[in-house]
Amino acid sequence: xxxxxxxxxxxxxxxxxxxxxxxxxxxxxxxxxxxxxxxxxxxxxxxxxxxxxxxxxxxxxxxxxxxxxxxxxxxxxxxxxxxxxxxxxxxxxxxxxxxxxxxxxxxxxxxxxxxxxxxxxxxxxxxxxxxxxxxxxxxxxxxxxxxxxxxxxxxxxxxxxxxxxxxxxxxxxxxxxxxxxxxxxxxxxxxxxxxxxxxxxxxxxxxxxxxxxxxxxxxxxxxxxxxxxxxxxxxxxxxxxxxxxxxxxxxxxxxxxxxxxxxxxxxxxxxxxxxxxxxxxxxxxxxxxxxxxxxxxxxxxxxxxxxxxxxxxxxxxx
Length: 318
Fold this sequence. Notes:
Layout: E1 2-4, H1 9-23, E2 31-35, E3 42-45, E4 64-67, E5 72-76, H2 79-98, E6 102-107, E7 111-113, E8 119-121, H3 146-159, E9 163-166, H4 174-192, E10 198-202, E11 218-221, H5 226-234, H6 250-257, E12 262-269, H7 277-291, H8 293-298, H9 300-317
Parallel strand pairs: 1-2, 2-6, 9-10
Antiparallel strand pairs: 3-5, 4-5, 7-8, 10-12, 11-12
């Protein structure tokens, strides 16, 4: 089970792991998004190989368009068009790459663009969009609502996954962190009801929160799946117009972890009673990280690898 905040987060953080275990080990995938995806912008490539991957329908009149380059337009549209496009892309990715359908928890994001293209923050006195039930907390506070914790715990118990993958505990937006807190509390409630699976969190390299949060204590070797991961990310074309240009950390994590390419994670809980190939790889690599912690994260070689990732990111992004 992968639980992430937004359309494309699942592919960015977990796609290599999911592809490997779905294709090589016949794992079923439970694909869950916590927010309703009502906020964001709509990128449209108009030239080159990616042209037409997220076309803006000509009948959508409520939009503001910025020409980013000769080949890329960026549109701002009201929340109801944004939701439709992003959920359609998520359905395509879930079906085509993981043989499943998305489960949407539909917690409202922290803001949205209204019918006049005004940005509305969901704060005291803000008008709620039509798509949102104002009696339900947003993703910003769902982690403090016992009813929502119970709802996600029930989902975990019903699906009974061997492993749950979710966001880092510290990330660049609280929509991610709020999702992690909600999942962690629901995980504990599910455990009380007999659930015996595992919970691991992705990491967020270079979030400028200190080197501690860039380290991991387990990983999945995703050698051979990086390009297919990029393809899966590219399905979310309105958000990821050029997946081939993304600065994925996976090859650098692989160098530090002793393999070609890796998705790194931190362990919240590894089950000692439930076995399976995925749990076993997490456990084996958890032992490897513990035994090689100093070399992985405090050696001159690892410092050079982290710096190489930073240099690549700065060259491409300024």
